[in-house]
């Protein structure tokens, strides 16, 4: 797989459509390299356009050749630029693109394209590089197919923004069955409609369950016998979990424990936990609960590896742009309403990644893992939230001087600056040039955790929040239990999530 460095001109992009919109898009991508997409070819069904070029970019074939062309030219992004293309064909092309590890971008309506000089600026997420302070990284490779194809795959938290994108990409790699688990039936209905174009709710692909429910999880694993599990279900809103730590333990720690136990009992081949950078030297209940989830996976991975029964690993996300309830969505709402944008501190920084990068990291972790690793995407330097706000404002045609920012102060458990690895963790390279791993915690086994977890679960079951905080501190040496602080009304309403 090609590695992307700082000198790269952008992700290798295949444009679908050599008409007016596609030609304008190619022109704009060539003219504006900061968009981060480098066109390498065009596909079009018009015989008159065969063997021609668009601004020097060759027409490589018809739409039916997407898969073979994408593989031959190491395509990382497929840009759909044929206005009015039937929805079913759009879905088929997107599925084909995902099936070879390519991300998909969509051009809006032809009418809006005609009204603007730069068509490229209409491309969804095309200018995300300006927000995250680096070029977007192409993560997932076609080799992921070897892990997914022909296997029974279970995704927990399937109705969420990360889980739903995971389901879409997993489906493109040809699993024998895709089981989508969530406790919210409306989310599952919407997800099935998006993936299949219909949602009759009459098959086994949708599973209503709560990961906290141990007997239910065990039943599901016995009945469905998943071979690959991607565990995305979690509580992730930092301020809420500071106020309700028992709920964090029930979902993030006990829920993970239930899934790992069921996976071991039924011979799951690969298990990937989705964690957060807040698990590195945690100072919040969110980070502590996710660190314990990592340790549960790590401890059981050692036993699974010794027994040759499965591969268990985890990934850490930064803040995911575009995920449900993310900073961008709240920024857009605050700017739309004309109110001030709330930021906790003028110097606060965070690591950011796109949904495509996040899902790609999960899939690549499933492919690369040998057991017990925690994988992290190289997200470059952390981004000042204030800088992101100003960049976002400019992209929606507002000047930085037009944005009023109100600083509210860091909330309980929040760090001024996040880290991707704990101080005691070694950053190890992987076969992917932009993914790193750590194997810290080799000495953490079930015998070290079991007693402490039992007491933690008992405290959470009794909703004894102070006891839960104390137990978290006992289980995680170095974790500082923050003093509860009153949160001012409307202070920083955006969730500081993954």
List keywords for this structure.
498 residues, alpha/beta, 9-stranded mixed beta sheet, 6-stranded mixed beta sheet, 17 helices, 17% strand, disordered N terminus, disordered C terminus, NAD(P)-bd_dom_sf, Polysaccharide_Synthase-Rel, Polysac_CapD-like, Nucleoside-diphosphate sugar epimerase/dehydratase
The number of strands is 21
What is the makeup of the main sheet? 9 strands, mixed
Strand content: 15-25%
Cα shape: globular
Mean pLDDT: 84
Tally of alpha and pi helices: 17
Distance between the termini: 27 Å
Region (Disordered): 479-498
Domain Polysaccharide biosynthesis protein CapD-like: 153-437
Protein name: Nucleoside-diphosphate sugar epimerase/dehydratase
Family: Belongs to the polysaccharide synthase family.
Overview of the structural elements:
This protein is of the alpha/beta class and 498 residues long. Helix content is 39%, strand content 17%. The protein is built from 17 helices and 21 strands. The chain has helices spanning 20-31, 66-72, 87-98, 110-114, 128-132, 145-148, 161-172, 185-196, 214-224, 238-243, 245-266, 285-307, 327-337, 355-368, 385-395, 446-461, 465-475, and strands at 11-16, 37-43, 53-54, 57-61, 77-80, 103-106, 152-156, 177-182, 206-208, 228-231, 270-276, 311-317, 319-321, 341-343, 349-350, 352-354, 374-377, 383-384, 405-407, 428-429, 435-438. A nine-stranded mixed β-sheet has the order 9-8-7-10-11-12-17-21-20, sandwiched between helices. A six-stranded mixed β-sheet has the order 3-4-2-1-5-6, with helices on both faces. Strand 5 (77-80), helix 3 (87-98) and strand 6 form a beta-alpha-beta unit. The longest helix is centred in the middle third of the chain and has 23 residues, at 285-307. It is globular. The two termini are 27 Å apart. The model is unreliable at 1-7, 109-126, 442-446 and 484-498 (pLDDT under 50).
């Amino acid at each position: 797989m090609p590695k992307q460095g700082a000198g790269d001109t952008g992700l290798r992009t295949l444009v679908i459509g050599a008409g007016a919109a596609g030609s304008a898009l190619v022109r704009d991508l060539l003219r504006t390299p900061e968009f981060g997409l480098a066109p390498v070819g065009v596909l079009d069904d018009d015989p008159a356009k065969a063997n021609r070029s668009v601004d020097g970019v060759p027409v490589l074939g018809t739409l039916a050749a997407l898969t073979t062309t994408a593989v031959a030219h190491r395509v990382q992004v497929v840009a759909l630029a044929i206005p009015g293309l039937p929805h079913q064909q759009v879905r088929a092309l997107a599925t084909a693109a995902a099936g070879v590890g390519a991300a998909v971008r969509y051009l809006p309506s032809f009418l809006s394209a005609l009204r603007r000089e730069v068509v490229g600026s209409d491309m969804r997420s095309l200018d995300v590089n300006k927000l995250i302070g680096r070029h977007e990284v192409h993560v997932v490779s076609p080799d992921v197919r070897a892990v997914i194809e022909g296997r029974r795959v279970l995704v927990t938290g399937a109705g969420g923004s990360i889980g739903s994108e995971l389901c879409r990409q997993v489906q493109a790699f040809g699993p024998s069955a895709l089981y989508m688990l969530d406790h919210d039936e409306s989310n599952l209905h919407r997800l099935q409609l998006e993936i299949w174009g219909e949602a009759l709710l009459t098959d086994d692909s949708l599973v209503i369950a709560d990961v906290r429910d141990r007997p239910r999880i065990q039943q599901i694993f016995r009945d469905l016998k998943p071979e690959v599990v991607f565990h995305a279900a979690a509580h992730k809103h930092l301020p809420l979990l500071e106020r309700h730590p028992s709920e964090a333990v029930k979902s993030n720690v006990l829920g993970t424990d239930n899934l790992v136990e069921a996976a071991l009992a039924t011979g799951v081949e690969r298990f990937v936990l989705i964690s957060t950078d807040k698990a590195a030297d945690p100072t919040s209940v969110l980070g502590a609960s996710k660190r314990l989830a990592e340790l549960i996976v790590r401890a059981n991975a050692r036993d699974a590896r010794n027994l040759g029964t499965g591969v268990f690993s985890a990934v850490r996300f930064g803040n995911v742009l575009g995920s449900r309830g993310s900073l961008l969505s709240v920024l857009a709402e605050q700017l739309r309403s004309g109110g001030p944008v709330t930021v906790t501190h003028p110097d606060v920084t965070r690591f950011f990644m796109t949904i495509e990068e996040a899902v790609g990291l999960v899939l690549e972790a499933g492919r690369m893992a040998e057991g017990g690793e925690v994988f992290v995407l190289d997200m470059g330097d952390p981004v000042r939230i204030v800088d992101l706000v100003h960049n976002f404002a400019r992209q929606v045609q507002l000047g930085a001087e037009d944005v009023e920012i109100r600083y509210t102060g860091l909330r309980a458990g929040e760090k001024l600056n996040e880290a991707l690895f704990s101080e005691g963790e070694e950053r190890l390279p992987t076969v992917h040039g932009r993914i790193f791993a750590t194997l810290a915690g080799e000495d953490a086994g079930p015998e070290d955790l079991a007693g402490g977890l039992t007491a933690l679960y008992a405290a959470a079951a009794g909703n004894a929040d102070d006891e839960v905080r104390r137990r978290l501190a006992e289980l995680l040496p170095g974790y500082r239990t923050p003093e509860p602080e009153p949160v001012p009304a409307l202070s920083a309403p955006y969730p500081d999530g993954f």
